[in-house]
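pasting for the record
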Amino acid sequence: MNKTLITASLVALATLSACSTTSPDVIQRNEAQRMAVVQDATVLSVRSVTVDGSQSGAGAVTGGVVGAVAGSSVGGRREGQIVGVLGAVAGAVIGNAIERSATREEAIEVLVQLRNGERRSIVQAKGNENLNPGEAVILTTTGGKTRVTRAPAVRVDTTN
């Protein structure tokens, strides 16, 4: 039974850690079919950064439960209670560390200059595009979140 509980807890923790991303290639469901604000900009610089992992408490709770159950099965009643409490504390610390590590994300910070001269900095996960200084990009903002993507080629109509 303990192995089943531990396995289920680890699967739940892994599932929670996979729920969030800042990738410019992934659009959240609530952003679909909503009009976004688009601004033209030029990339000034791009640098690698790490987005620190989240600590929602799910890892600590899961680890604490697993540690308490595993510890309480040690020895007799009194020893099981003591080891169960120690197991809960140790499990919570370990579960929190696992959650933080599992939700850590490699990202980029893109410094851009808007057409009006203002500068902006956007942090997002590394996407499929490699952005370089001097490139034309667009900033797409929906629901307070902004992503940077390469600007589409502009076709000039020369028939006039």
